[in-house]
Each structure stands twice: as C-alpha cells, then as structure tokens.
Amino acid sequence: xxxxxxxxxxxxxxxxxxxxxxxxxxxxxxxxxxxxxxxxxxxxxxxxxxxxxxxxxxxxxxxxxxxxxxxxxxxxxxxxxxxxxxxxxxxxxxxxxxxxxxxxxxxxxxxxxxxxxxxxxxxxxxxxxxxxxxxxxxxxxxxxxxxxxxxxxxxxxxxxxxxxxx
Length: 166
Prior knowledge:
By secondary structure, this protein is mainly α. It contains 8 helices and no strands. It has helices spanning 2-5, 14-37, 39-59, 70-84, 101-123, 126-130, 138-141, 144-165. The longest helix is centred in the first third of the chain and has 24 residues, at 14-37. It starts with a helix and ends with a helix.
C-alpha cells in the first residue's frame, strides 16, 4: 500500500490517499470486469450474485463454525460455478444501441465489482478485511445500508438501461 500511495502528494493524509488508491483500483477492476465478461454476461453475473448470496445466507448455519471464511468461500465458489454455467440458465438479453454499448459495459462492470466487494466485505470476518493489502473502506461496502444499496442500485440501473434502449 505504501508503494501505491507514494505517487500521491506527501501533504495528502494517509487515509485519503488510501481511499484514492482504492477508488482508482476499484474503477479499473470494474472496467476490466466489464470488458472481460461483456454486456450480456455481466447481467447474468448480477443474477448469479443474488442466487449465490441467497444460498450462502441460507447455508451459513450448516457450515462448520471453526472455519471462519467458510461463508465467503462458499459465496465465491457458487458465484464462479453459476457464472461458468451456460448463459441460457437465465436467458437475459439486454438490448442496446451500438453507440451505447461502451458506457453500459463500464457502468455494469463497476456495479458488479461493487456488489461482489460488498458481499465479500460483509461475509469475511472484520479481522480479515482489515488485513487486506489495500484498505477497503468498510463504511462504503460493509455496513448494512451499504450492502442493501449495492444490491438494489444495480437492479435500478439495469431497469433504466433497459427502458432507455426500448
């Protein structure tokens, strides 16, 4: 983290520098995810996040208590499996005009990255989240309000994108 924040001015407070680095990396990863998966696959990933979260939440009581990361790892495994399954599982197509494709991919990629980050910050123990090499702003991803917003806002954005395309 110190190597990343060394590019920022020394007068910038360390917490602000960490937020800037996290924000830049978050946006870069979101755009990368968007381009890697593509528009229609991103919508399938959004649906997979909801399904994986429901299964994880329902089965977290059944998992062994001595393994502290079991809920988070179960979510990751379910998300990967659901994402790898053929896209005909949900058969969701997001219509768009060719000139709208680029910004739709970018926005949806950032929303998917935010959703996954929020769910993982919620499922990982606080001690594990604090030990990440880049400090995650828990107030933006780990609080109950933030978790709810990260699960609702992508749906609203998808609704808006679909209405505009029609």
